[in-house]
Predict the 3D structure of the following.
Amino acid sequence: MRGSTKLFTIFGIDIELHFTWWFVFILLSWSLSATFFPHYFPEQTKEMYWMMGITASLLLFVSVLLHELSHSLVAQAKKIKVKSITLFFFGGVAGITKEEMKPSTELQMALAGPFFSIFLGVVFFLINRLNVNFFITAISFYLYQLNFILAIFNLIPGYPLDGGRAFRAILYWYYKDLKKATRIAVAGGKLFASFLIILGVFALISGTGAGLWFIFLGGFLYFIANASYEQVVLKDVLEDIKVKELMQKKFVSLSPEMEFSKFIRKYVNNDEDVFVVKGKSFTGLLDLERVGRLPGKMQDVVKLKQISMPLHQIKSLKMEDNAYVAFRKFAENGLNVIPVVEKGKLIGLVSRKKIMHRLVWEMKFGKLDGMRSKIKRKVSWKKK
Ligand SMILES: [Zn+2]
Protein backbone atom coordinates (compact mmCIF):
# COMPACT_ATOMS: atom_id res chain seq x y z
CA MET A 1 0.00 0.00 0.00
CA ARG A 2 1.21 3.51 -0.74
CA GLY A 3 2.33 5.56 2.23
CA SER A 4 3.40 2.50 4.21
CA THR A 5 6.67 1.61 5.88
CA LYS A 6 7.83 -1.96 6.26
CA LEU A 7 8.32 -3.05 9.85
CA PHE A 8 9.49 -6.64 9.50
CA THR A 9 8.86 -9.88 7.62
CA ILE A 10 7.26 -12.95 9.14
CA PHE A 11 6.39 -16.23 7.32
CA GLY A 12 7.53 -14.43 4.17
CA ILE A 13 4.88 -11.73 4.66
CA ASP A 14 5.91 -8.07 4.87
CA ILE A 15 4.30 -6.34 7.84
CA GLU A 16 3.72 -2.70 6.97
CA LEU A 17 2.54 0.35 8.85
CA HIS A 18 0.46 2.90 6.94
CA PHE A 19 0.93 6.53 8.02
CA THR A 20 -2.78 6.81 8.96
CA TRP A 21 -2.11 4.23 11.68
CA TRP A 22 -0.37 6.92 13.77
CA PHE A 23 -3.54 9.05 13.96
CA VAL A 24 -5.54 6.17 15.37
CA PHE A 25 -2.74 5.11 17.66
CA ILE A 26 -2.44 8.59 19.18
CA LEU A 27 -6.21 9.15 19.31
CA LEU A 28 -6.84 5.76 20.88
CA SER A 29 -4.04 6.04 23.46
CA TRP A 30 -5.32 9.49 24.39
CA SER A 31 -8.99 8.50 24.70
CA LEU A 32 -8.12 5.36 26.69
CA SER A 33 -5.96 7.29 29.15
CA ALA A 34 -8.38 10.21 29.40
CA THR A 35 -11.73 8.41 29.65
CA PHE A 36 -11.79 4.60 29.55
CA PHE A 37 -9.20 3.70 32.19
CA PRO A 38 -10.03 6.55 34.62
CA HIS A 39 -13.68 5.47 34.44
CA TYR A 40 -13.13 1.78 35.20
CA PHE A 41 -9.99 2.06 37.30
CA PRO A 42 -10.16 5.34 39.24
CA GLU A 43 -7.63 7.05 41.49
CA GLN A 44 -4.44 6.48 39.49
CA THR A 45 -1.82 8.99 38.38
CA LYS A 46 -1.95 10.64 34.99
CA GLU A 47 1.31 8.94 33.98
CA MET A 48 -0.15 5.58 34.91
CA TYR A 49 -3.20 6.21 32.69
CA TRP A 50 -0.98 7.19 29.77
CA MET A 51 1.10 4.07 30.22
CA MET A 52 -2.05 1.96 30.28
CA GLY A 53 -3.46 3.76 27.24
CA ILE A 54 -0.33 3.33 25.13
CA THR A 55 0.20 -0.32 26.13
CA ALA A 56 -3.44 -1.18 25.50
CA SER A 57 -3.51 0.45 22.03
CA LEU A 58 -0.24 -1.23 21.07
CA LEU A 59 -1.60 -4.60 22.13
CA LEU A 60 -4.84 -3.91 20.28
CA PHE A 61 -2.83 -3.44 17.10
CA VAL A 62 -0.91 -6.63 17.84
CA SER A 63 -4.33 -8.33 18.14
CA VAL A 64 -5.38 -6.88 14.77
CA LEU A 65 -2.09 -8.03 13.27
CA LEU A 66 -2.61 -11.57 14.61
CA HIS A 67 -6.16 -11.52 13.21
CA GLU A 68 -4.83 -10.62 9.75
CA LEU A 69 -1.98 -13.09 10.10
CA SER A 70 -4.43 -15.94 10.70
CA HIS A 71 -6.25 -15.07 7.45
CA SER A 72 -2.89 -15.04 5.71
CA LEU A 73 -1.59 -18.30 7.15
CA VAL A 74 -4.73 -20.15 6.03
CA ALA A 75 -4.21 -18.58 2.60
CA GLN A 76 -0.61 -19.75 2.50
CA ALA A 77 -1.65 -23.24 3.56
CA LYS A 78 -3.93 -23.20 0.48
CA LYS A 79 -0.98 -22.15 -1.71
CA ILE A 80 -2.25 -18.61 -2.11
CA LYS A 81 0.45 -15.96 -2.07
CA VAL A 82 0.27 -13.28 0.62
CA LYS A 83 2.58 -10.37 -0.05
CA SER A 84 1.95 -8.11 2.88
CA ILE A 85 -0.17 -7.11 5.83
CA THR A 86 -0.72 -3.39 6.28
CA LEU A 87 -1.92 -1.85 9.51
CA PHE A 88 -3.81 1.33 8.81
CA PHE A 89 -6.58 3.65 9.94
CA PHE A 90 -9.36 1.07 10.08
CA GLY A 91 -7.35 -1.89 11.30
CA GLY A 92 -5.47 -4.23 9.05
CA VAL A 93 -5.53 -5.45 5.49
CA ALA A 94 -3.78 -8.45 3.99
CA GLY A 95 -2.47 -8.11 0.44
CA ILE A 96 -3.67 -11.39 -1.04
CA THR A 97 -3.06 -11.45 -4.76
CA LYS A 98 -5.38 -14.22 -5.85
CA GLU A 99 -9.06 -13.34 -5.89
CA GLU A 100 -10.35 -16.39 -7.70
CA MET A 101 -10.60 -19.20 -5.20
CA LYS A 102 -12.69 -22.17 -4.29
CA PRO A 103 -15.68 -21.34 -2.06
CA SER A 104 -14.38 -23.68 0.66
CA THR A 105 -11.00 -21.92 0.62
CA GLU A 106 -12.56 -18.47 0.84
CA LEU A 107 -14.82 -19.62 3.66
CA GLN A 108 -11.93 -21.00 5.73
CA MET A 109 -9.80 -17.95 5.06
CA ALA A 110 -12.60 -15.56 6.00
CA LEU A 111 -13.47 -17.31 9.25
CA ALA A 112 -9.87 -17.78 10.43
CA GLY A 113 -9.56 -14.11 11.45
CA PRO A 114 -12.68 -13.76 13.63
CA PHE A 115 -12.06 -17.17 15.20
CA PHE A 116 -8.58 -16.11 16.18
CA SER A 117 -9.99 -12.89 17.64
CA ILE A 118 -12.37 -14.97 19.76
CA PHE A 119 -9.44 -17.08 20.88
CA LEU A 120 -7.49 -13.94 21.83
CA GLY A 121 -10.56 -12.63 23.65
CA VAL A 122 -10.69 -15.80 25.71
CA VAL A 123 -6.95 -15.60 26.47
CA PHE A 124 -7.21 -11.97 27.64
CA PHE A 125 -10.34 -12.83 29.62
CA LEU A 126 -8.46 -15.57 31.48
CA ILE A 127 -5.50 -13.25 32.09
CA ASN A 128 -7.95 -10.70 33.44
CA ARG A 129 -9.48 -13.24 35.82
CA LEU A 130 -6.05 -14.43 37.04
CA ASN A 131 -5.60 -11.01 38.63
CA VAL A 132 -1.78 -11.02 38.43
CA ASN A 133 -1.40 -7.33 39.14
CA PHE A 134 -3.37 -4.12 38.68
CA PHE A 135 -1.72 -3.10 35.41
CA ILE A 136 -2.17 -6.45 33.63
CA THR A 137 -5.72 -6.84 34.90
CA ALA A 138 -6.70 -3.38 33.63
CA ILE A 139 -5.12 -3.86 30.19
CA SER A 140 -6.58 -7.33 29.69
CA PHE A 141 -9.98 -5.98 30.77
CA TYR A 142 -9.92 -3.68 27.75
CA LEU A 143 -8.34 -6.21 25.36
CA TYR A 144 -10.71 -9.11 25.95
CA GLN A 145 -13.67 -6.86 25.22
CA LEU A 146 -12.10 -5.36 22.12
CA ASN A 147 -11.14 -8.75 20.69
CA PHE A 148 -14.69 -10.00 21.17
CA ILE A 149 -16.06 -6.82 19.54
CA LEU A 150 -13.57 -7.24 16.68
CA ALA A 151 -14.78 -10.82 16.13
CA ILE A 152 -18.49 -9.94 16.25
CA PHE A 153 -18.11 -6.86 14.04
CA ASN A 154 -16.13 -8.83 11.46
CA LEU A 155 -18.67 -11.64 11.41
CA ILE A 156 -21.48 -9.38 10.16
CA PRO A 157 -22.49 -10.87 6.80
CA GLY A 158 -21.77 -7.83 4.66
CA TYR A 159 -18.96 -7.70 2.11
CA PRO A 160 -16.06 -6.70 2.54
CA LEU A 161 -16.18 -7.78 6.20
CA ASP A 162 -15.01 -11.32 6.97
CA GLY A 163 -18.59 -12.42 7.60
CA GLY A 164 -19.52 -11.00 4.19
CA ARG A 165 -16.70 -12.95 2.56
CA ALA A 166 -17.87 -16.14 4.26
CA PHE A 167 -21.44 -15.33 3.20
CA ARG A 168 -20.32 -14.79 -0.40
CA ALA A 169 -18.42 -18.09 -0.36
CA ILE A 170 -21.57 -19.92 0.73
CA LEU A 171 -23.67 -18.10 -1.91
CA TYR A 172 -21.05 -18.84 -4.56
CA TRP A 173 -21.08 -22.50 -3.62
CA TYR A 174 -24.89 -22.50 -3.75
CA TYR A 175 -25.48 -20.48 -6.95
CA LYS A 176 -22.19 -21.30 -8.75
CA ASP A 177 -22.27 -17.67 -9.91
CA LEU A 178 -19.61 -15.37 -8.48
CA LYS A 179 -21.25 -12.22 -9.80
CA LYS A 180 -24.58 -13.01 -8.20
CA ALA A 181 -22.95 -14.10 -4.94
CA THR A 182 -20.90 -10.91 -4.82
CA ARG A 183 -23.94 -8.78 -5.62
CA ILE A 184 -25.89 -10.20 -2.67
CA ALA A 185 -22.97 -10.08 -0.22
CA VAL A 186 -22.15 -6.52 -1.35
CA ALA A 187 -25.80 -5.51 -0.83
CA GLY A 188 -25.48 -6.80 2.75
CA GLY A 189 -22.28 -4.79 3.15
CA LYS A 190 -23.89 -1.60 1.82
CA LEU A 191 -26.87 -2.07 4.11
CA PHE A 192 -24.61 -2.41 7.13
CA ALA A 193 -22.45 0.53 5.99
CA SER A 194 -25.57 2.70 5.61
CA PHE A 195 -26.69 1.63 9.07
CA LEU A 196 -23.32 2.71 10.49
CA ILE A 197 -23.56 6.09 8.77
CA ILE A 198 -27.12 6.71 10.06
CA LEU A 199 -26.07 5.59 13.54
CA GLY A 200 -23.11 7.97 13.34
CA VAL A 201 -25.32 10.89 12.30
CA PHE A 202 -27.70 10.24 15.21
CA ALA A 203 -24.76 9.94 17.60
CA LEU A 204 -23.37 13.27 16.38
CA ILE A 205 -26.76 14.98 16.77
CA SER A 206 -27.02 13.68 20.31
CA GLY A 207 -23.56 15.07 20.99
CA THR A 208 -21.40 11.93 20.88
CA GLY A 209 -18.16 12.67 19.05
CA ALA A 210 -17.63 8.97 18.29
CA GLY A 211 -20.41 9.36 15.71
CA LEU A 212 -17.88 10.80 13.29
CA TRP A 213 -15.93 7.56 13.53
CA PHE A 214 -19.02 5.53 12.56
CA ILE A 215 -19.67 7.79 9.58
CA PHE A 216 -16.08 7.38 8.36
CA LEU A 217 -16.11 3.64 8.85
CA GLY A 218 -19.51 3.29 7.14
CA GLY A 219 -18.34 5.39 4.20
CA PHE A 220 -15.16 3.36 3.89
CA LEU A 221 -17.01 0.03 3.94
CA TYR A 222 -19.53 1.31 1.38
CA PHE A 223 -16.73 2.38 -0.93
CA ILE A 224 -14.90 -0.97 -0.70
CA ALA A 225 -18.13 -2.93 -1.17
CA ASN A 226 -18.86 -1.02 -4.37
CA ALA A 227 -15.32 -1.37 -5.69
CA SER A 228 -15.36 -5.13 -5.03
CA TYR A 229 -18.48 -5.56 -7.09
CA GLU A 230 -17.06 -3.48 -9.93
CA GLN A 231 -13.94 -5.64 -9.84
CA VAL A 232 -16.02 -8.79 -10.27
CA VAL A 233 -18.03 -7.21 -13.10
CA LEU A 234 -14.82 -6.05 -14.75
CA LYS A 235 -13.50 -9.58 -14.60
CA ASP A 236 -16.73 -10.96 -15.94
CA VAL A 237 -16.70 -8.61 -18.93
CA LEU A 238 -13.01 -8.98 -19.74
CA GLU A 239 -12.98 -12.76 -19.43
CA ASP A 240 -15.27 -13.03 -22.43
CA ILE A 241 -12.86 -11.17 -24.68
CA LYS A 242 -9.96 -13.03 -26.22
CA VAL A 243 -6.47 -11.60 -26.59
CA LYS A 244 -6.71 -12.72 -30.22
CA GLU A 245 -9.39 -10.08 -30.85
CA LEU A 246 -7.39 -7.24 -29.36
CA MET A 247 -3.99 -8.19 -30.69
CA GLN A 248 -2.19 -5.84 -33.03
CA LYS A 249 -0.30 -8.01 -35.53
CA LYS A 250 1.50 -5.31 -37.48
CA PHE A 251 4.22 -3.40 -35.73
CA VAL A 252 7.41 -1.56 -36.56
CA SER A 253 10.42 -3.74 -35.86
CA LEU A 254 13.61 -1.86 -35.03
CA SER A 255 17.18 -3.10 -35.12
CA PRO A 256 18.71 -3.68 -31.67
CA GLU A 257 21.92 -2.04 -32.92
CA MET A 258 20.23 1.23 -33.91
CA GLU A 259 21.48 4.30 -31.99
CA PHE A 260 18.90 6.11 -29.90
CA SER A 261 19.54 9.45 -31.64
CA LYS A 262 18.86 7.89 -35.03
CA PHE A 263 15.66 6.33 -33.72
CA ILE A 264 14.47 9.71 -32.38
CA ARG A 265 15.06 11.44 -35.71
CA LYS A 266 13.29 8.75 -37.64
CA TYR A 267 10.25 8.20 -35.42
CA VAL A 268 9.70 11.63 -33.90
CA ASN A 269 6.29 11.89 -35.55
CA ASN A 270 5.18 8.36 -34.77
CA ASP A 271 2.09 7.85 -32.63
CA GLU A 272 3.40 4.81 -30.79
CA ASP A 273 4.92 4.88 -27.32
CA VAL A 274 6.15 1.30 -27.45
CA PHE A 275 8.30 -0.23 -30.17
CA VAL A 276 9.43 -3.75 -30.91
CA VAL A 277 13.18 -4.15 -31.04
CA LYS A 278 14.09 -7.32 -32.86
CA GLY A 279 17.27 -8.78 -34.27
CA LYS A 280 19.08 -12.09 -34.52
CA SER A 281 20.04 -12.34 -30.88
CA PHE A 282 17.74 -9.88 -29.21
CA THR A 283 13.98 -9.36 -28.98
CA GLY A 284 12.48 -6.83 -26.65
CA LEU A 285 10.21 -3.86 -26.17
CA LEU A 286 11.20 -0.23 -26.07
CA ASP A 287 8.73 1.64 -23.89
CA LEU A 288 9.50 5.35 -24.17
CA GLU A 289 7.73 6.09 -20.89
CA ARG A 290 10.30 3.96 -19.11
CA VAL A 291 13.33 5.53 -20.77
CA GLY A 292 14.70 8.31 -18.59
CA ARG A 293 16.11 11.58 -19.89
CA LEU A 294 19.26 10.89 -21.92
CA PRO A 295 21.85 13.64 -22.45
CA GLY A 296 22.60 14.46 -26.10
CA LYS A 297 25.99 12.78 -26.13
CA MET A 298 24.56 9.61 -24.63
CA GLN A 299 21.87 9.47 -27.29
CA ASP A 300 24.53 9.03 -29.97
CA VAL A 301 26.14 6.12 -28.15
CA VAL A 302 23.24 4.21 -26.60
CA LYS A 303 21.82 1.40 -28.70
CA LEU A 304 18.18 0.43 -28.61
CA LYS A 305 18.85 -3.01 -27.12
CA GLN A 306 20.48 -1.32 -24.11
CA ILE A 307 17.34 0.58 -23.18
CA SER A 308 14.79 -2.05 -24.18
CA MET A 309 13.25 -4.66 -21.95
CA PRO A 310 14.21 -8.17 -23.14
CA LEU A 311 11.22 -10.30 -24.10
CA HIS A 312 12.06 -13.06 -21.62
CA GLN A 313 11.83 -10.56 -18.76
CA ILE A 314 8.28 -9.54 -19.68
CA LYS A 315 5.25 -11.56 -18.63
CA SER A 316 3.79 -12.26 -22.03
CA LEU A 317 0.38 -13.43 -23.24
CA LYS A 318 -0.78 -16.34 -25.33
CA MET A 319 -3.31 -16.01 -28.14
CA GLU A 320 -5.88 -17.98 -26.18
CA ASP A 321 -5.61 -15.85 -23.02
CA ASN A 322 -8.49 -13.56 -22.20
CA ALA A 323 -8.46 -9.82 -21.72
CA TYR A 324 -8.65 -10.15 -17.94
CA VAL A 325 -5.34 -12.02 -17.86
CA ALA A 326 -3.91 -9.20 -19.97
CA PHE A 327 -5.41 -6.59 -17.65
CA ARG A 328 -3.65 -8.13 -14.67
CA LYS A 329 -0.35 -8.43 -16.51
CA PHE A 330 -0.28 -4.70 -17.21
CA ALA A 331 -0.08 -4.15 -13.49
CA GLU A 332 2.57 -6.85 -13.02
CA ASN A 333 4.78 -5.64 -15.88
CA GLY A 334 4.28 -1.93 -15.43
CA LEU A 335 4.22 -1.65 -19.24
CA ASN A 336 1.53 -0.18 -21.45
CA VAL A 337 1.91 -2.95 -24.01
CA ILE A 338 2.18 -6.70 -23.54
CA PRO A 339 3.74 -8.98 -26.13
CA VAL A 340 1.80 -11.99 -27.37
CA VAL A 341 4.18 -14.91 -27.69
CA GLU A 342 3.59 -18.25 -29.30
CA LYS A 343 6.31 -20.96 -29.25
CA GLY A 344 8.88 -18.43 -28.06
CA LYS A 345 8.16 -16.09 -30.96
CA LEU A 346 6.66 -12.62 -30.75
CA ILE A 347 3.50 -12.58 -32.86
CA GLY A 348 1.68 -9.45 -31.70
CA LEU A 349 1.06 -6.77 -29.12
CA VAL A 350 -1.86 -5.89 -26.88
CA SER A 351 -2.00 -2.33 -25.58
CA ARG A 352 -3.64 -1.08 -22.42
CA LYS A 353 -5.35 1.62 -24.49
CA LYS A 354 -7.03 -1.02 -26.64
CA ILE A 355 -8.36 -2.94 -23.63
CA MET A 356 -9.61 0.20 -21.91
CA HIS A 357 -11.34 1.31 -25.09
CA ARG A 358 -13.03 -2.06 -25.45
CA LEU A 359 -13.96 -2.06 -21.77
CA VAL A 360 -15.65 1.34 -22.04
CA TRP A 361 -17.66 0.10 -25.00
CA GLU A 362 -18.64 -3.13 -23.24
CA MET A 363 -19.69 -1.24 -20.12
CA LYS A 364 -21.64 1.27 -22.13
CA PHE A 365 -23.23 -0.96 -24.70
CA GLY A 366 -22.36 -4.44 -23.52
CA LYS A 367 -23.91 -7.11 -21.41
CA LEU A 368 -23.89 -5.17 -18.15
CA ASP A 369 -27.63 -4.70 -18.23
CA GLY A 370 -28.35 -7.67 -20.41
CA MET A 371 -28.59 -5.17 -23.25
CA ARG A 372 -25.72 -6.42 -25.34
CA SER A 373 -27.64 -8.09 -28.13
CA LYS A 374 -30.25 -5.32 -28.32
CA ILE A 375 -27.69 -2.57 -28.69
CA LYS A 376 -25.65 -4.56 -31.16
CA ARG A 377 -28.73 -4.84 -33.33
CA LYS A 378 -29.40 -1.14 -33.02
CA VAL A 379 -25.86 -0.25 -34.02
CA SER A 380 -25.85 -2.51 -37.03
CA TRP A 381 -29.25 -1.20 -38.03
CA LYS A 382 -28.01 2.39 -37.86
CA LYS A 383 -25.09 1.55 -40.11
CA LYS A 384 -27.46 0.52 -42.85
ZN1 LIG B 1 -10.53 -10.26 9.14
Summary: The pocket of zinc ion is lined by residues 67, 71, 113, 154, 162 (CB under 6 Å).
